[in-house]
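The records we work with from here on pair a chain with its fold. These numbers are not coordinates but entries in a learned vocabulary of local backbone shapes. To see the layout at work, look at the sequence and tokens printed below:
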Amino acid sequence: MKPANTRRWIGLMLVFILGIFCCSPPFQNFASFPNELRLFSGQGKELKLTMPVSAQATVKNPNILHVNGHTQTSFRVSLNEPLSLETGSTGETELKLKLFGAIPLKTLKVNVIPDLKVVPGGQTIGVKLKSAGILVVGYHLVTIADNKKISPGENAKIQVGDLIMSINGHSINEVLKVADLVTKAGESKHPLELIVNRNNDKIKILLQPEYDVTDKMYRLGLYIRDSAAGIGTLTFYAPDQRVYGALGHVITDMDTQTPIVVGGGEIVHSNVTSIAKSHHGEPGEKRAQFFKESKVLGNIEKNTAFGIFGKMSQQPDHSIMNDAIPVAFAEDVKEGPAQIYTVVNGQKVEKFDIEITHVAHQDFPSTKGMVIKITDPRLLEMTGGIVQGMSGSPIIQNGKIIGAVTHVFVNDPTSGYGCFIEWMLQDAGILLKKNESELKAS
């Protein structure tokens, strides 16, 4: 056989052997063995290498992590058997595996976080949100003469989406208080001094109201708003911290599409009266009305990319379960079956089957952490899939709350996005960000 053919056959054999090796369980397990691991206190986990050898294991802080029941710093383990990890006290530690006591095989950093459980929601809630100022949502033309119309606000370079924080040195967040100030400034011919929040920058603007000869009053030439209202779904209630999270997405002003800066607000009970079903190209919606508005469930302190958050003094009514359940980190979420909790009639929270069809690897928070598909025949019959007002419905997998519904696919309303619960817990202030937990541990 020619040397060239011999080399070719040897190369093909090596590729074949390498392919078989890469497909073998030991290689697959080695490749999937994590470099970092986060666990809640009291939580256990099994890791597999499936290698027919033993290794020397070293745990930096054995009071934080026990491996196969060992509480000492150094011991031998069989890599052909699963490594059973059990957590002790909170903090950071390292597990090192060495072959023959000398050859480094794997180093695993483990961060043990204080145990955290929450009560999953699913209740439809009414949201009353007060902005931190007066939001400019458009321009209005003031008739100052028979054939002349202007907008004083636009001429003063005020922009749609600006948040008026104060007028003449006084904080203001109610539209009703603006009219008297406008009249006084118009009659005195002294311009109003406005402090405007624009893209988190504070800007001072002088604005002189103009007299509208048609309406017989002074006007700014601006459309303004100080509040918003709607419905959504409660995601969780944390009984130990007495806080909640809901919606799974930011509340924006319907005209400017800018996030509303929270100046206060509250959530109340809501009653679903009917459902407009989703169709291809046309998302449906829950039709609901506020119920028992005098009974406030909680306040609103934050409006973030992952929803609204605030204090809640007691567990809300109509929960599927009264006991808190564990939460899952993003890396623990798997493709496969899961459930969502939501309301489709009245105030009764029900459980419906879904499939998680894709899980994204996220190093930074994003509302599109997983793709979900409604598979429950009854929910599909009633809603056509995901509808507006369902955002915030908690997602449960293997007895843990893993996330919340956030968006519907317009062209396929049976599917949509969900966010990971850990991002919502971070915004609620009850779970540290990764870098914050590392700094705290150090």
Summary: The CA atoms of residues 37 and 110 lie 5 Å apart.
